[in-house]
Amino acid sequence: MPFLFENLEVYKKALAFNEEIGNITESFKKGNYYLVDQLNRASLSISTNLAEGNGRYHKADRKNFFRISRGSAFECIPILELCKRKGLIREDQAGVLKENLDEICKMLSGLINY
Known about the structure:
Largest sheet: none
Structural class: mainly alpha
Shape: elongated
Radius of gyration: 14 Å
Mean pLDDT: 96
């Protein structure tokens, strides 16, 4: 029996985003561990806080975790920019990742305002 949040499209997109980040950061040159670690943690935090929020009984608690999830998505933006500037990802790749984050953020905002 799946947990209800596993049916949410935003959860599926957040997991896919984290998986893509993991795949991309595997190829980063040594010496960039701080970026790899922070980007992987921030991207993972999107889906984990979404899941944790869905496990809360009180509406205020749920909203708080959805806000944290959205904040983690925003946290990925400057890290992606740094990765682009250091030549670790291409500009077009960064653009697609930012578009994915924008879509996830809009969906999270919908959950927050629901």
